[in-house]
Design goal:
Order of helices and strands: EHEHEHEHEHEHHEHEHHHHEEEHHHHH
Structural class: alpha/beta
CATH topology of the domain at 6-147: Rossmann fold
CATH architecture of the domain at 6-147: 3-Layer(aba) Sandwich
CATH superfamily of the domain at 6-147: NAD(P)-binding Rossmann-like Domain
Distance between the termini: 61 Å
Radius of gyration: 20 Å
Number of helices: 17
Helix content: 40-55%
Bound molecules: nicotinamide-adenine-dinucleotide, magnesium ion
Largest sheet: 7 strands, parallel
Strand content: 5-15%
Strand order of the largest sheet: 4-3-2-1-5-6-7
Shape: globular
CATH class of the domain at 6-147: Alpha Beta
Length: 388
């Protein structure tokens, strides 16, 4: 099908989602033109992408990084810095892929929607923390928020058969599937001995370190409950988590008549990325295609709330509302970083988050300043607990 070539800004280009997005773009040079990039610490990789795709605008995190990158890519590439740089890049293309890690992705989410762009959102942390602020900018003419996260992308596809009335009265539940991570079936006692290598060994997905740890604690699924609620404007009480170890059914929607629609594929993030880039065109790559002539076992079970209290914390944060989801996500970022730096044990991750949440005092979250202040407070509390 002939299409207009669309410009793409890929922010967080050197990470797991970033490099898989590049893979999609490499195969569709007629459909997409990569015009802007950003990255964190991996400047050699960033420079290689700039050269391969002929990109002219790049964002980095500091002036020092700007000097280093400029030396690698030459003077005709415009290198911008910090949140302001990210915001300007996110307003500069038809499609913006937010593959930045953590709260640092917030300027991308807000700026892309404010500028009326299509936002292919992998960075769930920004949506979870800033849900009320995102809701305001989503109605900008032209703005479109599409979820790259595989579960939410699945739900987006399943909801295509709903008339899409506000609040989805025809939908009973969103069923978010979870692989269960590497510790599925482990008891609380066994989990006390979990190592970093164990936690980084995800059974079905290959992802960046932070989300891999989040998948081991099931905090990723807790965050995804909040993400689903914000994306589809549905109360968390209508979002349910189902453990599905094979990661073939990426999520489901149950309608009020009892019908359940699901989206299936082999686990490959290039599929939801390509869906978000191509919509309404489905790109013909066969990523994730299932061979139904081979034995295919699909099993489902309930998550274990005693071994994995993170999911409960997320529901509670949603009930508290206001800045509570921002606190949860910020405290979790700090705790996961401490775990990855070998400063705490695996069980401490969610304990730290729970202790931070115990100190949450209701705060409505009306502005970006409120959010930034709350994020800083939650991080300071988490660091305070870690220092003890
Ligand atoms: P990653 O760590 O592999 O990559 C993160 C990218 O962000 C890199 O380009 C890094 O340089 C950049 N970055 C890191 N810190 C930054 C900062 N402070 N400022 C600016 N840039 C920074 O992470 P990932 O696994 O690709 O995940 C990215 C996002 O996508 C996360 O929000 C994650 O939850 C979400 N996600 C990832 C997957 C997956 O399969 N990896 C699946 C679903 C959702
Ligand atoms: Mg996911």
């Amino acid at each position: 099908m002939p299409t207009v070539r669309r410009s793409v800004a890929l922010l967080g280009a050197t990470g797991s989602i970033g490099t898989q997005t590049l893979d999609v773009l490499r195969r569709e040079p007629e459909m997409f033109e990569l015009v802007a990039l950003s990255g964190g610490e991996q400047l050699d990789e960033l420079a290689a992408i700039v050269k391969e795709f002929g990109v002219r605008r790049v964002g980095v995190i500091s002036d020092g990084h700007r000097h280093t990158l400029a030396a690698l890519v030459g003077a005709d590439v415009d290198v911008v810095v910090g949140d302001e740089g990210l915001s300007s890049l996110a307003a500069s293309a038809d499609i913006v892929v937010n593959a930045v890690l953590g709260f640092a992705g917030l300027p991308v989410t807000l700026s892309a929607l404010k500028a009326g762009k299509r936002l292919a959102l992998a960075n769930k942390e920004s949506l979870i923390a800033a849900a009320p602020l995102v809701a305001r900018v989503r109605s900008t003419p032209g703005a479109m928020l599409l979820p790259v996260d595989s579960e939410h992308c699945a739900i987006h596809q399943c909801l295509a058969s709903s008339p899409g009335e506000p609040g989805y009265p025809d939908v009973r539940r969103l069923l978010l599937t979870a692989s269960g991570g590497p510790f599925r079936g482990w008891s609380r006692d066994q989990l006390r001995g979990a190592t970093k290598a164990d936690a980084l060994n995800h059974p079905t997905w290959s992802m960046g370190a932070k989300i891999t740890i989040d998948s081991s604690t099931l905090m990723n699924k807790g965050l995804e409950v909040l993400e689903a609620s914000a994306l589809f404007d549905i109360n968390v009480e209508r979002v349910e988590v189902v453990v599905h170890p094979q990661s073939i059914v990426h999520s489901m929607v149950e309608y009020v008549d009892g019908s359940v629609l699901a989206q299936l594929s082999r686990p490959d993030m290039r599929l939801p990325i390509a869906y978000c880039l191509g919509l309404p065109v489905r790109l013909d790559h066969g990523w994730g295609a299932i061979d139904f002539t081979q034995d295919l076992e699909l099993t489902f079970e309930a998550p274990d709330p005693m071994a994995f209290p993170a999911i409960g914390l997320a529901y509670e944060a949603s009930r508290l509302g206001g800045a509570a989801p921002a606190w949860l996500s910020a405290a979790n970022e700090v705790a996961v970083a401490a775990f990855l730096a070998d400063e705490i044990n695996w069980c401490d991750i969610v304990d730290v988050v729970a202790r931070v949440m115990d100190g949450y005092v209701a705060d409505p979250l009306d502005s970006l300043q409120d959010l930034v202040a709350n994020d800083a407070t939650a991080r300071a509390r988490a660091h305070g607990i870690l220092d003890q």
